[in-house]
Fold each of these.
Amino acid sequence: MPFDQAFALSSVLLATTAFSGLVLAQSVPLWLVLPTAIILIVSLLHAGGVLFVRRAMAQVTVSPTLWNVLLIGAFVILLIDLTVVSRDLLPAGIHFLVVLLGIKLLTLQQRRDYRHLYAISLMAILASAALTTDAWYVPIFLLYLLAAVWTLLLYHLTQETAETPAVVTPTSTAACQTTFPSRITHRFFWLTNGTAVLTVTLTLAIFFLIPRIGAGVVQKTSGEALRTTGFSDRVDLGTIGLVKQDPQIVMRVELPDQPAVEKDRLYLRGLAYDQYNGQSWSHSGTRQRSLSLVAEGTFLARPAGSRPSDSLLGTIRQDILLETLDTAVLFAAPFAELVNGEFLTVQADAMSGLHLPFPPSSRIRYSVTSQVPQLVADERTASILAYPDSIRSHYLQVPVGSQQVADLAHRVSQQATTPFERTLAIQQHLLKNYRYSLETDTATLSHPLEEFLFTRKTGYCEHYAPAMVVMLRTVGIPARLVTGFLATEWNEYGGYFTVRQRDAHAWVEVYFPHSGWITMDPTPTVSAAVATSRWESIRRLGESLRLQWDRLFVRYSAKDQLAVVHGVREGSDALRERVSRWVSSLSAPISQVLSRLTRMVRTFQPGTLGLVTVVMVVGMALLLLMLRDRIGLWAATHLPTAHPQLAIVQLYTRMLRTVERHGLSKPPAATASEYARLVEQEWKAAGPMVANVTALYLQGRFSRTPLTPGELSRAAEQVGRLQSLTHVAR
Amino acid sequence: MSSAHTIRSIQDNIALVIKGKTHVIEMAVVCLLARGHLLLEDVPGVGKTTLAHSLARSLDCSFKRIQFTSDLLPSDIVGVSMFNRQKQGFEFIPGPIFANVVLADEINRTTPKTQSSLLEAMSEAQVSVDNQTHPLEQPFMVIATQNPAEYHGTFPLPESQLDRFLMRLCIGYPALEEERKVLDRPHSLHPAETLEAVLSAREVLALQTRVDQVHMEESLTDYLLAIVQATRQSELLSLGVSTRGALGLSKAAKALAVVRGRDYCLPDDIKELAPSVLSHRVMLNRTHGMRTQSFEQAERMVLDIVETVPVPV
């Protein structure tokens, strides 16, 4: 088959596979499928060289103006579709794409049209990748890749042939075709298919490698965990202040079930502390409880029957991507009910702090379902609350010598009649009378709390929260200090909170017998004032893209990859089995493989497949582009061509292009020797190479005897040297 | 001896006499090998005759020289039939045209009638006298010279006759150094007389056959035809190149290939020869009031046209 015909055929096949992908995704209505399918079949027959179709098509001539009018019409319909009918970009865009495809197929004339066709096909296959989870998509996608390789190669080769005309005169067009009849030979056929297989293999290899590389690159300094403070057994006052200006990202929290409300702040609880000795906070109890496993990877975090369910504000599900930290704490909104992640075990302490047995060595992803407690109405108004003994013994402890603080607390809350009002009064006192400032170094003071409350009156969360806890305790209200992160940076593009080191926070949990531990925060929300400039929003867009990358590739962990490999291997086992029992059972293993593939595809995110497609196609194009020169050289010397002259002519054209890139183009009326002399004068370094190639070219092109393979490879070597010369020059 | 060597030797031989004119010598040899005739057009005294003489001398061939004057008759060239008493019949006495190399000196000084008597001889390589056809010896080559500077008492060659010359060459003044060499030479003998023949007639014929076998690639033929077409379509010319001109260019290109030691033509052969082979066959649209067009003008015109035709890659 001649190159031209094969090129047209493979182009239409490319469009056909892309279209099949769309049809498979069930995103094209029937009234659009039928005409497009007919057009595709006609185009295939036409490209395949079926004579009566060619003749019939030759009869029908439609002016380009009509096509343009049709195109504009299709665009108008797209707009209507977008605004009135589908009201969504994807279906409307797909309808438009299909119409565009049909029109392009009917107007394939110039190379430009073919390029448009490829662009449309690429978009179609991408759209279908995003929409389908059907197992049949896999073979169609592979076919698309095969067709793409063929098309790219043939496009290049036909372009090359077109660029090397014999003579540019009216009489020569016929001569030109007879001089270089380029046909698809056996060798070429297998070579191209081999390239396609190689491409797929390479891409798969890269796909498997990228998460590995990503683990190193995206995770920044590998092996070195982010240093956090405030999540160990003991917390000294003032340590959080050290990280309050660090913008390093600690985690990203998605709220998949949450509607777009209350995205202003989210408390992510780390650990709670009950004992204060005037200098630092610590846990009193060391009792660790392993959470019970309720399903694979799912742990039940709530102690059985600990809280009545009517006091709950609502359920928040969070998907958290936690960077590598030097702490084993798992952060979650208060209070975790269910924890889902690839953990062997999750432990909880007596104060509902979740943590792993040891700090994770890589970034982890887990999801938590939390139930947010709400203050029961009658506890707001109850003047006396009966606290259990276990609570009283733990959460009313104050350091010795805090009489001054106790006096302040009593003075502030003397108006209040109920515990809840007292709590609010103390909170309000702290909010109103103290100034938020990060430039407060109290870590070295002997009485940091008194210093904050009475002397400096400026501080940050680590001063506010302990002050409130101690004040509450002196007036008989059980409270505890909680450290964690206060997420305020909502990324509207990705739909998640970005949590940074500087979001580290400390707050207070106040106990109410029926409601449980209620979160209270005495710190003014100064830190929440994040600049919302345009830059900020662009940065957030970039951030969200990075998360997508994480989600689609980096999350694709070694385990998942192993699962795929297992699937494939089991599939191949099944295939082998099928060969051995070829006669007896034909269908079962195939369906087994298919169902496995289906499962694989299902577990893929549709977006993953789309991204894989993009990576494959872009990678392939880049590969071809990068190797274009090499492939051309190789093809020119090794591929069997119908005319022996073609090889040296291609080499010579390549040489011309190379020198032209250096700014020395050949005047059309100059002969090869004249041009060689010109190059010799203007570009001394290239002179010998050009002279050698020109001599071989003249001999091979115009004499009766074709060049020997040795001479050809010598010419190729010279062109290669010239190319490397230009690379150096660049 | 290889053909390249043979040709080299003849060029070297002529170069002993004609100093510093290797290009003109090469063209003369090309003309010889292409079975063409040569028109040398230049001012007197630059070596037109000497070139013709040396070429003829270098070949082991017969050489005749005809000085064209206004009273020269056709029979003075082709010969006459005279009555032979002993045989009782007319007997043909061959004229000076019956030689391998004929030098037609100052060809534009004679009448058109006499000039046209050369016509048949040049194109058909035969002469007809009294209904009898006499073939000329092979190889046969006419080297004509003419003086463009004087127009008094001259008869410019008709187009048909110009077309029969394969090439028109201009010798031009030699460079200073070369001219000094000419002066330093002993004067006792005409320099051309000292030359020894290096090529026999048979060898010349063999070389001419070799020229016919030279390969001209299809695209080159197209290129040549494109040039010829361009002269016909050019607005600068009122008369383009004839088919004989195209044929001549093709032959000359092949001959040049042989001279340069190849058995195939290159685009350079055609491009290089185009001015010499085509310029005397075209007529300029405007000759600026002059009766005849100048040599340089026509050559420049042809060169310009060639520069518009793309060379096949």
Amino acid sequence: MNSIKLIRSKWFIVTFFLLYIGICWGAFQWVYKNEILLQSLYKNNESPDADKVMMLYNAMIRKVPGRKEINSYYCLGKILIRVEKRKEAIKVLNTMIKITPDDRSVRLWLAIELHNQQRYREAEKHFVVLLKKNSKGSTQKYTEYH
Amino acid sequence: MKFRHTPYQAAIVITLGVYLYYLIYRIRYTINPESFILSIGFFYAEAHGFLALLLFFFQIWKPAKRKWPSPIPGLSVDIYIPTYNEDISILRKTALSCAKIQYPHTTYILDDGNRPELAKEAESWGCKYIARKERKDAKAGNLNNALQHTDGDYVVIFDADFVPQPNFLDRTIGYFHDPKVAFVQTPHNYYNVDSFQFRINKKKEQSWNEQDIFYKLMMPCRDNWNSTFFTGSAAVFRKRALNDIGGIATGNITEDINTTILLYSHGWKGIYHNEVLSNGLAAKDLKNYHTQVLRWAEGNIGLFFVNNPLFIRGLTIPQRICFFAVIFGWLIGFPKLIYFILPPIMILSGGYPIGSFDFSFIWRYVMFLGVILLGFKFACRGYGKIRYDESYLMMNFFIFIKAALKNLVRRKSVFKVTGKGLQASTNILEIIPQSLLCLICFGGIAWGGLKLYYGISPDFMGIGVAIFWSFVNGFLAVSGIELVTRPYFKRKDFRFIGAIPVRYSVPSDAVSLGNVGISRDLNEHGISLVTFTPLPLDKPVLLSLYLNERTVTCKATILYTAHSSHLTNYLHEKMFIYGLKFEGLSREEMDVISVYCFNTILPRFLQRFGKKPSVFLRLVFRFYHHERFRRHVRKKITIPLVIYNHGKSSLLVVTNDVSISGLSFTSYIPLATGTLLHMEIITPFGKLFAEGEIMQMREIVSENSYFVGVKFTHFFGQSEELRLRGAGSDDKERFVRWLKIAANGKN
């Protein structure tokens, strides 16, 4: 059988397609291992396993993230708060602020967390920035986060 | 009509306006600094598209209106048929058709292959033979050599596979009344419609050829700017004009366009006569097709370095624009590559060329896309088929890139002759770019789907758009691969699609004597025959082919029968399809069939399948088509029809359509309207005798094809009573039912 006949064979097409999808799926699982775990923990309503969360935190906090990963950091922050790891959550929020300094909702969330941790000086800085920008609707977004 | 082209021109202006607005919006608001390279790459592709569209629209602005002037008698004309390694059987058809050209001329075979057997054959065809020892400058050198050895004042050039019509010179030589005219170019048409450059829809009677838009729209419009160009074949030259520029231009592998630019720069004029007067062979397989396209692309881009139309002296501004457009058109490979790979790259990398896929961008993008697609389709006046055009670009983009890169590094180009012989199967190496693109696109779709499923990317809009375009591009690549890897035809010579009446009989079987069937396709070697009685597979069949005024009778052997599933149920055991090979035909008889195929079947096919109503006219026809007002719908049924004159069979033809109140057919002789005809209609359900009056008659193909519309007066009257002879009442009912339920184009 020549190569052209082979690529036109139904069996070859089906087998190749399944194999190719399998490879894509496997590669995806490998590349996005942490993100997949993160999303499953985030979507799960039960209290997440603190060890797993810390493992994810340690893996992600070392990276220099880009704007497109902001969603993952947001989820991580939420999970850390759920397992009462507020200091770590603040670190994550600080990382997010570095990526998106103009995101008023993240800044407000960070300022409130710092305030709750009684780190008033740090919180004040962020409140000042927010007031300067005269942000509208931030309170509404804050309620969305909490 | 003065404003006939105004709607198209308005569409062009609106389309370009919207495109420009979109580009300004894109550069001002949507460049993404975080994915700067992707963003700039995508913007370049769009800006390139704008310039390409602008140049394209300039070339289709308005077609020149020409009516062929009467021929100038007494000119001395030489016909050149340059050849290198083409099959002698292909050359034979060309040479014999040249011999049949009515205007006095001398035909020369210019053989760069230096073949003694061809020299001998040329003599027998009545042609003169000129050969060279060296192959310097390939085809251009061959033609220049002939210019030195012949003394005609006018020169016609036909490629080895181009078969001219007898009136070729009558229609073109008259343009040389104008002393400034250097050449007259006619369209290239290809008769092997089974080549992969064609798409045929038999049901809708539509055909698409990737060069239609060029020869049927762009060239007539370029003619309006005096920018038409010699395309290598099917053209007449004034020899003095060629001598003025030192003969056919050399130094570039596309000698045709190069020669044209030189002629224009010396103040000569070119004419485009928009009528198919010759038919050639399209490259039959992908490899040869790519060889041809690469040569065109390389040569045309190379003009930028040889005779740059922007800077050469003597051209008008429209000529500069039109010839620059030709060069620029071949650079489309780069933006196409970006369009094809960008969507999966967006998904895989997560980087977007657009700052944000918000509503503000999306509505502008949708508007831009809609206007571009509709505007292009409308402005192309029925010749633009976006899906086919995109599929063509998908199969060729890497060839265009290769040609551009070869020119960039100034690699010397070699003239390669396009193979026009037996079709070869596609090699897997020839479809590697499309295969890789398939993998990337479908990998991107899977990746994007998984990203959305796992919630890794919340950007549904961005990924959704990227998945959509990945799917479109992947589909184009798959459909292209599917098309070029189809099992190829091993038949060496193309069979012409058309119906002619054929009488058939089995010599040893007296019962079947005198039955009439019709052909589905035909050439000088064989026929596909539809009969209404079964034929014995193990016996030779005697056929009489009715080829206008000539009848060729021969024996034929049945090679195959079509599977019964090809026929609808009610025709089961009533209609049979056979493939037959002719036996014992003389060379002269084969030539008669061949000439009939080229001069009658092919023009009729082109007339039927070549109609290209614009989008606007198609909309009008949809609502106001005259078929709607017929009492009985005409079905496109082809069956034999015998017309009697004073009780004797005088004409055997094939119907175009039939209804219970009338029919139409194509005749090779003109018939006067109002004439009463006595007809024998041969159907799968028996013979039907009727009398009818000719209601309309018009010439559809010059000199040998007339459309005749007949209304039944006697048997299909108001009572719709059918008088059938030789058929039972069951058959009568089935015939009526057949007419009622037969699908168009299926008999």
